[in-house]
Amino acid sequence: QKEVEQNSGPLSVPEGAIASLNCTYSDRVSQSFFWYRQYSGKSPELIMSIYSNGDKEDGRFTAQLNKASQYVSLLIRDSQPSDSATYLCAVNRSGTYKYIFGTGTRLKVLA
Amino acid sequence: DGGITQSPKYLFRKEGQNVTLSCEQNLNHDAMYWYRQDPGQGLRLIYYSQIVNDFQKGDIAEGYSVSREKKESFPLTVTSAQKNPTAFYLCASSEGGLGSSYEQYFGPGTRLTVT
Hints:
The structure holds two protein chains of two kinds. In chain A, 0% of the residues lie in helices and 54% in strands. Chain A is mostly beta strands. In chain A, a hairpin with a 6-residue loop joins strand 4 (32-38) and strand 5 (45-50). The interface between A and B is medium-sized, with 28 and 23 residues.
């Protein structure tokens, strides 16, 4: 079992729809969770961080964390073609410098 | 503007040559990291450094070396011992401090091709 798992996609959604990206992790001691957006050929860009169970909203983005079920998700409302990218999930155990990344989900927003 | 710079953006080398990738940050972050990214794989940690003059091996350190002589600089050398060096190399930094989890920020990356 991979430490951080994401569906590779592509996930295709029409413009204006909600895109839902999911990530599961295996280490129950993980305490910090991050979502990155990576455009083709570019480096990852931090979108959201979440540390507590529940939802965290930032503009069109909402991160959801459920530690009991060991999953974290990212919702993108009003999806735009410019949101088309690969989204990476990363987890970190507090007190360590190791961040574990998933392989990413490719999102395609269709105009 | 605060940020992380990496140079060069593209690098081409012949097999058997050592090559050094530059990473500089002006975010005043304590921790710095090197990852490599290959198609279809997640980011893999090569080395990380928590403070100046200290660094630790990551998951795939063989064939690589680093130094941390200054807080803002963390160069990576890809040696001829690295069997498959062609990859996208990413430098990152975060605020330090054990017991806390800080957000990591990435530089623009260096794409290394070895033939």
